[in-house]
Amino acid sequence: MFSSLFNRFVLAAGLALSTLGAAAQDNIMTVDAGKKGIPVPGTMYGLFFEDINFAADGGLYAEKVKNRSFEFDDPFMGWNIFGNVTICDDGPFERNPHYVRLAYPGHPAFVTGLENEGFFGIGVEEGKEYRFSVWARTSGDKEKELISFRLCKNATMGEDQAFCRGYIEVDSREWKKYEAVITSPITEAKASLRIFLEHLSPGQGIDLEHISFFPVETFNGHENGLRKDIAEALQQLKPGVFRFPGGCIVEGTTLETRYQWKNSVGPVENRPINMNRWNYTFPNRLYPDYFQSYGLGFYEYFLFSEEIGAEPLPVISCGLACQFQNDPATDPHAALDELDPYVQDALDLIEFANGDTDTQWGKVRAEMGHPEPFNLKYLGVGNEQWSELYPERLVVFMEAIRKQYPDIKIIGSSGPYRDGKDFDELWAAMRELDVDLVDEHYYAEESFFENNADRYDGYPRKGPKVFAGEYACHGVDGKKWNHFNAALLEAAFMTGLERNADVVLMASYAPLLAHVEGWQWRPDMVWFDNLHVMRTCSYYVQQLYACNKGTEVLPLTMNGRPVAGKEGQNQLYASVVKDSGKNEYIVKVANLSSDLQEISICFTRLPRRQKLAPEVCCTTLHSDNSLAENTLDKPDQIVPTTSHIADGLKDNTLTTVIGPKTFAVYKLTYSE
Ligand code: AHR
Question: Could you tell me the distance, in angstroms and rounded to a whole number, from the CA of residue 520 to the centre of ligand 1?
Answer without folding.
Answer: 11
